[in-house]
Amino acid sequence: MLLFFEQCLNGLQFGLLLFLLAAGLTLVFGIMDLVNLAHGSLYMMGAYFAATFTTLTDNYIVGIVIALGATLLLGMAVEVIAMRRLYGRDHLDHVLGTFGLILFFNELVRLIWGPGGMNLTLPSWLNASIEILPGVQYSMYRLSIILVALAVAFGLYVVVMRTRVGMLIRAGASNREMIGALGINIKLLYTFVFGVGAALAGLAGMMQAAILTAQIGMGENILILAFVVIIIGGIGSIRGAFIASIFAGLVDTVGRAVIPDLLKLVLSPAAASTAGPALSSMLIYLLMAIVLVVRPAGLFPAPGNR
Amino acid sequence: MSGLLQVENLAKRFGGIVATDDVVINIPEGELHAVIGPNGAGKTTLIAQLTGQLMPDSGRIRFDGTDITHLPMYQRSMLGLARSFQITSLFLDLSVLDNVSLAVQAHAGHSFHFWRDARQQADLREPARAALARAGLADRADRPAAALSHGEHRQLELAMALAGKPRMLLLDEPMAGLGPEESARMVEMLRALKKQYTILLVEHDMEAVFALADRITVLVYGRVIATGSPDEIRNNPQVREAYLGEHEEGVVHD
Amino acid sequence: MMRMFTLRNALAVVVVAGLLLVPVYAAFIGNNFILSMSTRIVILAIAATSLNLIMGYGGMVSFGHAAYLGIGGYVVGMLAFEGISSGFIQWPLALVVSALFALVIGALSLRTRGVYFIMITLAFAQMIYYVGVSLSRYGADDGLTIQRRSQFGDLINLSNKTAFYYLCLACLLGSVFIVWRLVNSRFGMVIQGARSNDIRMRAIGFPTYRYKLVCFVIAGTMGGLAGVLLANHTDFISPAVMHWTRSGDLIVMVVLGGMGALFGPLIGTVAFLALEEALPFVMAKTIDPYFIAQNIRPSEYWQIILGPLLLLVVLFARGGIDGLLARIDRKEQP
Predict the structure, then answer these.
(1) What is the pLDDT of residues A95-107, one digit of tens each?
(2) Which among A86, A100, A306 has CB closest to C308?
(3) CA-CA 20 to 30 A from C281: which of A295, C59, C135, C321?
């Protein structure tokens, strides 16, 4: 039972991480109508920046902050140099162009940091366990991920729902021609949104790096999950992305823990150990397929969206 | 009530907005029935429900006695109800002839034929050319559809609606964006078509409406406020107030 | 009347002629590398041709087409592993299985449009990939070695590289021929119309879903054929063949050659694989010498150029090679 609870927490943590990734993705998609496959690369760059700067400055917090800034700048640079030219084009063009960017970033990382991946060591105060409930130990680090991600989610909510910039963003997600007509500096808004999305992705990468290490190609696998999440949640909807991410994180984590055991009840141990991991990996895609069949525009599509 | 097209108490809401409010229209065979109304009156929503793009919340639509209220789009076309689009919706990357041939092909049985070259099949090409001729585009047959002018696009829209040998045409603002010469030509073309087809015409162009329509329905905020002959409508005080008042200069006195 | 002698036609003729002569050339210089390379090109071109059918002509951008390479290959591999080497059993079964997968995936995916379609096809391919990874009996992640190529008795010996190559080439030309007849038929017109304007097609009376589904199944089956050939060519099959980046490669090949052009996929495959070989080679000759002192070999990182190159092609040469040649052809017309 306690194990199940821990798995749920892990699922929540993974879901929140997915949300950080999905939020940027759905914003960019909803407002700029841009399918950005290279979002995973920004996630990877965040991880590598964090590993590098924390090592260089020998201070975890400072390193993270610098890395966040670096990812934000990188995101804005990518928007200005490459993404701008893709707006308004066919989605296939986006897929191809950003696919090219993935190749580029993977090679760039290999060139600068080598093929071996990089470790991000946590300071001792994060490496500890904390007793969250009587008798229940949980990793301090994972707990802090949950808290930070929730804080960011809340911050996003406040900005999107309660500020002028947020209003522009919501308006843009529903009707992008209109905000142009209103005379808002679209270019700046787009660069800003893209940069923020990149920073969020980078933050997710940094958090994940301490658990799994920073590696070439780490972005691609989680990117697909992020896309699945925004499709389930409905493109352009941050609320949808939040709900879908948490749901996906829980399903994936708890599923992986529970399915092999469940299968052993009905199948032979050999079959269960083969089918178990496969089914767990497939679960989230199965979910997306079901959602798309019932609701081809996702659970909470932003109103006015195609 | 009997007619080729019968709309019975049709209703459609979008959230708080009532787009179609208890609409009743009856169009006997051979009539050209115009639907007019100010912008936002719900004309396009009405056509969308008639063609199957939108499903009404309540009410019935009958075509030649058959209840088509919930029939999918492609099946309505097979029953003989053809539409033209308000915003040009063609196969721009195909040739003009290909466009119309497709409309012919839709009514030529199933298309699970994988071998013979469709562009060489006379039973597709001949009727297509005939429809193009009727719409006045015979000489543009081999041009890419994208190369045509806006007026010619409207003609192509018409040709495609005709190619399927429909019994009834739903024409959604065929004059949209046309200059005076092109408009006059379109009116003549529609007048010629009147003899063969039942037509529901949604239009803003009042000259055309009064020149062509046998009967007119006036739609305001989704509701029918008047139905009758052009004279009746012209003299209806409610209509004058709600709508024609803005268009005094455009009304034709014949 | 269309001119027969256009640059686009000329290129297609040259490439096909070149492919026909490859074994002769290989025997002449006594080196089999070019034969092996060409076999790979031909096999991938079959997969690209099948993708072009749904993507270029049908407008259905599938980001999971590599899955069919894997499915076809795994049927062959799994049967071979279980002792069934007869090609007469393996190949038809592989095609049927590919068709079934395409039927299910297509039936679900075609309910969506645009980017949703791209993502759902990607997701399905990922599912199949994970199934492949979990097949511990058949090598899982490491893949499965195929001890014996498909046996066809006295009909043909697939272990004979030249015979195998010509078989693959025949399959490629057959695939292109089939696509040619398909896209110009009534069926093809529906597919092209649906690509151009799906709503209009439905408005004029076509139930486009079922036609697109049939098209999708045909393409999946053809992809399965490519997978069968690939497994025989490499004597090996692994989940890596189905990785989503391989699907991305296929899309690149089709776009590079020219979407919706008959020989576009073949030319695109040649261009893509040639680029994979040539780019590092060229970089080694031109750029590497400058970096010897720093002990770096830039040519090892050739993909760093491929990436932006792809972006440039998307921005400036969207019609691919076929599109570029078409532009030149048009200029030369009176």
Answers:
(1) 888 988 988 999 8
(2) A100
(3) C321
